[in-house]
Amino acid sequence: MINNRGKEPKFGKKPTRGKGFYIALAVSAACIGGAALTTFQSMKEFSDPEQNYSDSRISERFQNAPQKKDPTLRDKQGHNNNTKQAGTSPFKKEGDNAAKNAEQNEEAAANAKPSKKKADDGAVGYPLENKRVEKGFSLEKPEFSQTLGDWRIHDGVDFAAKEKEVVKAASNGKIRNIGKDELMGDYVVIDHKNGITTYYYGVRPKVKKDDNVNLGDKIGEISMIPSEQDEGSHLHLKVMRNDQCIDPIKDFLEAGRT
User: Fold this and answer.
1) 168 near 218, Cβ under 8 Å?
2) Which 3 state secondary structure label does DSSP give 85?
3) Host H or E run for residue 62
4) Whole-structure pTM over 0.70, yes or no?
5) pLDDT at position 219, please?
6) Is residue 176 a contact partner of residue 189, using CB atoms and an 8 Å limit?
7) Tens of pLDDT, residues 37-59
8) CATH code for residues 133-253
9) Averaged pLDDT of the chain
10) Number of other residues whose CB lies within 10 A of the CB of residue 207
């Protein structure tokens, strides 16, 4: 609209923009551009499959980042693991104890001695490794004695043996007596169950009176029998049941039980 004076009508003043407005606009644009560039580079680094994640920039970034503690993480004893010193693991102590226990168990197993199982009280066995008989049992038919030069009954069995050979208990029992006889030499006597008593002549004792022995235990070593010395070193085994002589092989050793 043109007024009568040929001039445009004035409805108000036209707004003006100073230099400060344009400076602020430029700074904002620069910040936005920098943020976008940083974001783009970071995405590129982590999206590159060939990128080495031990890169010093990434390592430094995570090392300098504050570590958050999880207040809900607790160990088996109910203690808060966040109270542990830095660099320790809540499972380290348990692992160390398990390893130590395993080592102790292995050492104990290596040093453990095998337990000696007690034999059945009624079981029997030969007193020598050698079972060769030199003279058998005979109560009715006399045997000739080379040493004494006469005929006499033989109330036991003579087993061939070398001097100092180990003699073992023929069954579980208790040492009744040990000693030395003028004719039969060193001896050991053992009481067993069911009225059985064994006599080991020509045996130097390695046990004491009233000792308890098990089948196979060492009771002495072969020595010499004066009345049978011409026959050489050997074991004279006599067995009695309820004070009656019985055949040591037939009625005792081969019977398998007392």
Assistant:
1) yes
2) coil
3) helix 56-64
4) no
5) 98
6) yes
7) 555 554 444 444 444 444 444 44
8) 2.70.70.10
9) 75
10) 17
Residues in the chain: 258
- Residues contacting residue 137 through CB under 8 Å, at least 6 positions apart: 154, 155, 156, 157, 247, 248, 249, 250
Give the integer Cα–Cα distance in Å for 255 and 258: 8
> From CA 216, how far away is CA 235, in angstroms rounded?
16
Predicted local confidence at residue 126, as pLDDT: 96
Tokens (6 digits) for 169: 């208990």
Domains of the chain by residue range? 133-253
Residue at 40: amino acid letter? F
- In the block, tokens 């003028």 appear at 182
**Which DSSP symbol is given to 105?**
H
CA distance 68 to 176: 81
**Which tokens in the block code for residue 109?**
């197993």
Instruction: Please tell me the chain's helix, strand, coil percentages from 3-state DSSP, rounded to the nearest 5.
Output: 30, 30, 45
Residue that has been written with the tokens 């060939």 in this structure: 50
**Closest by CA position to 222, among listed 237, 235, 209, 239:** 235
Number of other residues whose CB lies within 10 A of the CB of residue 172: 22
